[in-house]
Amino acid sequence: MAVSTWVIVVVVVVAALVMITWYFSSFNSFVRLRNLVDESWRQVDVELQRRHDLVPNLVATVSASAAFEQTTLETVTKARAAALSLGQGADVAAIASAENLLSAALSRLQALTERYPELQAVRAYDALLRELEDTEDRIAASRRLYNANVRALNTRIGSMPASLVASVHHVPLAEYFEISEPARHAVYVAGLLNPDRDEDR
């Protein structure tokens, strides 16, 4: 009888230790995944800021090199200002919306520059286009990494039994950084102004 009691006690203690270990392991996994999401978002933000920094130079170069439509330039400038105004505390959906508007404005600007062949001879403009293309590639890469981390976190939150720990600690789902298809492809501009370069890609 005494042996049976000790066996039961040992089983209960071991089971409790296993549950406690699992609980803290699950909680720590949420912390780790949330940190990955935050870190990858910071990289997205760095690349978006890089694009924001390019816009004034692009607008100034176009304005100085051609009798360009001022309305289009103002639209780009306003879209950039709107994106910058959101600040660090804005939610991901609002930032994505603002960045899509900026992409659309840049797309419009770049499409219209096709009517001004004299811009092709301006080295500063060509350099800006190359840098903008590189920046768009960086944004796309950082966005993919961020969304992959979001997917990992959200999958963990929705999976049993880890979802029980998430519910107890009110672990929120992370937001995907969604970019509409037209905006995603809108800002490849080197081929628009230099068709020969596009054929080499």
Helix/strand structural class:
mainly alpha
| CATH C-level | Mainly Alpha
Number of strands: 0
Overall pLDDT level: 83
The number of helical runs is 8
CATH architecture: Up-down Bundle
CATH homologous superfamily descriptor? LemA-like domain
Task: List the uncertain runs.
Answer: 181-201
Helices and strands, with pairings:
Blueprint: H1 2-65, H2 70-85, H3 92-112, H4 123-158, H5 162-168, H6 181-186, H7 190-193, H8 195-200
Helix pairs in contact: 1-2, 1-4, 2-3
Structural commentary:
The chain crosses the membrane at residues 6-24. This is LemA family protein. Residues 95-145 form a coiled coil. It is a single-pass membrane protein. The protein has a single domain (39-200), classed as de novo design (two linked rop proteins) (Up-down Bundle). It is built from 8 helices and no strands. The chain has helices at 2-65, 70-85, 92-112, 123-158, 162-168, 181-186, 190-193, 195-200. The chain is rod-shaped and about 95 Å long. The N and C termini lie far apart (81 Å).
Short recap of the structure:
The protein is an all-alpha fold. It contains eight helices and no strands. Helix 1 packs antiparallel against helix 4 and helix 2 (70-85) packs antiparallel against helix 3 (92-112).
Which terms summarize this structure?
mainly alpha; de novo design (two linked rop proteins); 0% strand; disordered C terminus; transmembrane helix
